[in-house]
Structure formats: structure tokens, C-alpha cells
Amino acid sequence: MHKNLIGGQWVDGRAERINLNPSDTNDQIGVYAQASAEDTLVAIDAAEAAQPIWASLSLQQRADALEFIGTEILSRQTELGTLLAREEGKILPEAVGEVVRAGQIFKFFAGEILRPQGEHLDSVRSGIEVDIVRQPVGVIGIIAPWNFPIAIPAWKIAPALAYGNAVVFKPADLVPGSAWALAEIISRAGLPDGTFNLLMGRGSVVGQSMVESPKVKAISFTGSADTGRRILTTAAPRLAKLQMEMGGSNPLVILNDADLDLAVDVAVQGAYFSTGQRCTASSRFIIEKGIYSRFTAAVQEKLQSLVVGHALDPQSTIGPVADKAQFELNLRDIKATRAEGARLAFGGEALTRETPGYFMSPALFVDAEPGMRIAQEEFFGPIACAIPAVDYEHALQLANDSSYGLSAGICTNSLKYATDFKRKVQSGMVMVNTPTAGVDYHVPFGGTKGSSYGSREQGRYAAEFYTTVKTAYTRY
Q1: β-pairing, 118-122 with 128-136?
Q2: Which intervals hold domain Aldehyde dehydrogenase (predicted)?
Q3: Mean pLDDT of 227-255
Q4: Cα separation of 303 and 264, whole Å?
């Protein structure tokens, strides 16, 4: 059994979970320990004791530790990518790409350790100087989702450690394998015992204990909006620092002047790759009326060429849905959308393959109305809808008609409309002639409205969450 890492020791759980392959449910990946609330409190105490020790190490020692982690991840990218594909369902090239990104993130923050930020200023008062420095927050609770089981943990854990914090990490219960492999690498990087802790288990047990503990000074969460609101109501009253990414209903606007082939490629990649299981996936195609019929027909033609199959089959372009519960939810959402009146133009069916798994054909609804659930809520699967727009201004209005605001895109050859869209669309990230899903690790990630709460993730902007600013005055 794969154990939890608490205070530098591998510890048995009070229960266990069997990890199955969604491409082949006969394939058992492993058995993983389930932590209890008591285990969580022990890990938090260990992190609190270790944090000042870790923060007191030299910049070079901390940088070397993160460099070691990043280097090993990259050296094992095929092995770790295969594990990720087996447990989450991404096709192997996507899974290996995610592993590479995780390694790059650790290397980026290894470099950031050696570039500490601060300022030395003269005071407005004579004979006084001012120093402004960033210091670690303390113990960071990290709660990660299942759709990016190594990249999202990496972009939370790496900056937390880089800035001198200790970590208590709870991965998604669905995908413990990638998290355990990452934790095993971190356990050999020379961190003081307790600096990093892995607690696999239920969110209602492990996550709740982390959120309630006054020793956990900050919580970084990625997941559903409902869970995010519950975390907020529990942790905010005790003044915990919070950073939450909670999904999106992301628009992709297609204008009449768009390059049709490029627009179709952008739409299909953004909506359907990774089985649509990305918070930045395009779920709403908002199409100017002059290109509407040609675009929707071309998307259907492109979807016909995609191959849904086993994540490790080199012929597959789309893997399975991650688990049975999500698979059944997707099928219910498709049925409900048809009942609302949108026309299912392509896909949306359960598929049978050589191995038992959760396979479904990518679904495209056309002639959807902006008030329909599919146009307002996050459907976390290979499902998208097409909504007609009268003109650019109407398309922009429809794009902003959402309680979410994570990522938005536009396909156009007009500099005027592209510039206007970048300024006026209500989202944290904007893509012009490129998929809404697919971001870099060295720049900020995050949204507006109901998509995000707190400061941005990734790049140098991560320092806003993982550090606190201290201002010191000295008379000379």
C-alpha cells in the first residue's frame, strides 16, 4: 500500500482506496492510504515545527532542493506520464506534457529563490531609511483537483516551498498515484522533516481539518465553486489567507473575418482535448451569423476525425472520462440540454471499446440559447455549444453573460476587434486566435467574478499569496 507522508515518515492510513484506470477498469494502479482527521492534525503540527527551520536555510540550499525535484520529474517524464494517463485518462502525449510542465515549474521557482524581491528606500523623514521585504506566511494547506494531478500540485507546492513555507498537501481522492509519486520525489530532496506532508483521503475529512485548523495560515484550493464557497465560510472568519480557483464557462467568439481552419482548430483543441476536463476549456462557441453555418459544419467534420480510445493507445486523440460518476453526470447533462431545446448536432454518446472504460463521443450542441444551463454552468467534459451572435457587440455581450470569468477567446483577423475584446471581456485571461485552454507557467493564472478568489497563481505573481510583506524603519 502507498502510504501518507507525515513529519518525514511514511505512515499507514486508517483506510485504503483502490485506484483504477478509467481506460480499463480491470487495471488496478495501486492501493493508497486514506488519512484521518487525527493524521491531518499531526501533519499540521509537523509542518508548523518544520517551517522556520526550512525558511532559515540558505537561498542556495532551498534552490538546490527545488532544482533536484524538477530535474527528477523531467528525467522520469515518460514513466510519470504513463502513470498519469493510466489514472486520470489523458492521452499519453498530453500526460507527458503535463509532467514536463510540473518539472519546469519546480525549476522556475528554484530560480526565483535566488531572485528575492525587496526594496530599500529613503523615508520621507530625514535620517530614516526603509526596508521592504517578503517573508513566508507559515503553514500552507493545498487542496488540488483531479484533472491535472501533477501540474496543479506543482504550481502550488513549488512556490509555497520556494518562499519558505511548509506544506500540507491533499490531492484529489480520485488521483492519488501522481500525487504520491510527486511526494516520493520531494521526500528525497533534502527538506527538513515535516516541511512537506502528503495526506491522501476524503475532502470531508482531510480537507475539512485543514480548513478548520488555526495553524494553517493560508489555503490554496482548486475545485468546484460550491466547495470553494464552503471553504470561504469556514476559513475566512478565522482570517486565513485564501486563494481559490473555481472553474469557468469559457466563451470563444468567432467573427465573420476569422480564418475558418484556424478557428476550428482553436475551438476543437480548446473544448475537447483532455476530454474537455479543463477549467479553461471552451464551452461556449459564440459565432457571428455570417460564419455560423460554415463554422458549425466544419467543427462537426473535425470531430468525426477524432479517435476516442484508451489513453495509452497511440491512435487515440481523446481519452476516457476520468471516472464513472463524471461519466454519468456528463450523460445526464447532455440529456437535460436536449430537453431544454438545444439541438445535439454531434456525439454525446457512450462508446464501447476493447477495454471496459468511461468512453464518450465529443458532443456539440447548436442553436443554444444564452440562458440555457449549458451556456451558464460548467459542464466538465467533452461538451460544447454553439450560440449565434448578430455582430461583434452582441458577441461580446454574450461572452460576458456569465457568473464565471476565467478564460475567454476570440478568433478574428481584425486588430480593432481583438484589441477591444482584450480590454472589455470580463475574464482573467484572454486568448486571441489561440485556444482558451493552454497557459504558460511563468505568467499569472486566474480569473474574475465567480471563477477566482484571492491573488493569482503561477509566475512571479505567486509571491503575492505565498508571502507577506514587512516594512522596517531604521534611524541612522
Answers
A1: antiparallel
A2: 10-471
A3: 96
A4: 10
Comparing CA positions, the residue from 320, 314, 361 lying closest to residue 20 is: 320
pLDDT in tens, 266-325: 999 999 999 999 999 999 999 999 999 999 999 999 999 999 999 999 999 999 999 999
Q: Which CATH architecture has domain 4-246+451-475?
A: 3-Layer(aba) Sandwich (3.40)
* Locus of grid cell 478509467: 22
From 87, 98, 279, 385, active-site residue: 279
Q: Measuring CA to CA, how many Å separate 355 from each of 22, 23, 249?
A: 10, 7, 32
Dihedral angle of Cα 426, 429, 435, 441, to the nearest 10 degrees: -170
Q: Can you say whether the dihedral through the CA atoms of 337, 339, 342, 346 is positive or negative?
A: positive
CA distances from 351 to 10, 26, 157, 300, 374 (A): 41, 17, 37, 18, 22
DSSP, res 216: E
Question: Of 245, 288, 378, 457, which one is the catalytic site residue?
Answer: 245
Residue 432 backbone dihedrals phi, psi, to 5 degrees:
-115, 115
Would you say 318 and 363 are in contact if contact means Cβ atoms under 8 Å apart? no
**CATH top-level class for 250-432?**
alpha beta
For the question of residue 279 being annotated catalytic, the response is yes
- Give the model confidence (pLDDT) of 429-461 as tens digits: 999 999 999 999 999 999 999 999 999 999 999
CA distance to 102, 139, 338, 384, per residue, from 378 (Å): 26, 32, 16, 10
| Pairing of β 448-449 and β 404-405 | antiparallel
As beta bridge partners, residue 313 has: none
The pLDDT of residue 299: 98
- C-alpha angle 172/434/228, rounded to 5°? 30
Residue pair 378/384 in contact by the 8 Å Cβ criterion = no
Place of cell 541612522: 476
Strand ranges inside 161-204, DSSP E: 166-170, 196-198
The edge-to-edge listing of strands for the beta sheet with 196-198 is 9-11, 4-6, 196-198, 166-170, 139-143, 216-222, 241-245, 452-453
Spatial distance between the Cα atoms of 460 and 233, rounded to a whole number of angstroms: 29
Q: Is 411 a catalytic residue?
A: no
Can you say whether the dihedral through the CA atoms of 339, 275, 88, 403 is positive or negative? negative
Domains of the chain, by residue range, sit at 4-246+451-475, 250-432
Query: Looking at this protein, which amino acid is placed at residue 57?
Result: L
Helices (H) and strands (E) in the chain, counts: 15, 24
The three-point CA angle 269-273-90 to 5° equals 155
